[in-house]
Amino acid sequence: MAEQIKIQTPFTEEMSRKLKAGDAVLISGEIIAARDAAHKAMTEALARGEKLPVDWTNQMVYYLGPTPAKPGDPIGSCGPTTSGRMDAYTPTMLEQGIKGMIGKGSRSKEVIESMKKNGVTYFAAVGGAAALIAKSVKKYEVLAYPELGPEAVARLTVEDFPAIVVIDCEGNSLYETNQEKYRTLKGY
Amino acid sequence: MRELDVKTITENVAEMCKEAAYYLPEDVYNGLKRGRETEKSPVGQVVLDQIIRNAEIAKAEDRPYCQDTGMTIVFLKIGQDLHITGGNLEDAVNAGIAKGYTEGYLRKSVVAEPLFNRKNTQDNTPGVIYTEIVPGDKLDITVAPKGFGSENKSGVKMLVPADGVEGVKKAVMDIILHASMNPCPPMVVGIGIGGTMDRAALMSKKALTRSIDQRNPMPEYAKLEEELLELINQTGIGPQLGGTTSALAVNIEWGPTHIAGLPVAVTICCHAMRHAHREL
Ligand code: SF4
Fold it and tell me: Interface pTM (ipTM) of the complex?
């Protein structure tokens, strides 16, 4: 197995620029969960000229969709959700200082351009590896929009959260290169 | 005549919903391990290690294997000599789904109406329930929750007889290539060939309840299953981030069809190939 690089948050642009597509990492520290409804609420707040409830400077955002937590657990099974649904909001959010994004699936051209400009790394968590990921989450605290329930913006304290760099801040994408590399299919 | 109270059905369905969400079937787990041994991409190996570890943790700790605990598909084979008492069968099954998803801390992912208001029913009901009347006096239940990352990439193609085997392969590969890494591969691919459009789709779902180690009993179809698996593993899709383990198996079911038709339905399932089976 390839060596896994340990990352401790806060995640700065300098740290982000060192990572290359294909690097396997283990993230420790704090990451912030937000998905569809929270992204909509935040970009709307920015459009109205309001300040966001969370300071995104040097933060990592995680697009997650958890199952309910069992009593005594900080969180239920919590694998990544499809990042593409956040694409429309992402360039605006990256301007807020986010340096890392964790989700699954490819991203739009606009997002990749904004990543290059802002020095942002996009990580994939393994789709469906939700119980494994839950083990790395030590604490879950709602930061904003509690009315959104499981979609509220929340701070996760994580230890060795497993992820893989899929698009680095130079725009290199594992989705393109690694599929091509192992493709032997002919005639279809 | 043998009697079976609906309460027993509700209890069993509730347990099966949890069982299916927590425990990956043995054949799929072993398939993942075999995939890990032959995977050529180093990143693919890392992904498979995590998927295998995930299955082990989910099983050891009774946790949902994936956070999308699916829409609940239930196949019922009802013996014609069985008398179900104490209430309505479908209500009993739905009560079991509600109980299982609530008690088991599973995600509720069903909306009551699909287009205009999409309000969550809060207990994952109703399930998609299929009934079949069979000889005997037993009730055979299969609970197969289906995640929608992979369901959204499934499809049907209405071919004509002249398209033949090559046409079937092309139709399947078009759907697979379009799905790419989105349905959380390694996938298991269920295919229904023949029938009508709806029957083909149903056969493609039933195909997924068969063990991934069991090939179709008819040699021509068994061979087609193997050829398609090989083609899918040549796409480079791999375990999500590129590689050689794109699918673990292709299961085909076929049925009689019309002289003018050759329907082909493909249900893509992710590595979260979950199902539970019991006979009451
Ligand atoms: S496609 Fe399957 S593994 Fe992926 S998130 Fe959906 S249910 Fe989970």
Answer: 0.91
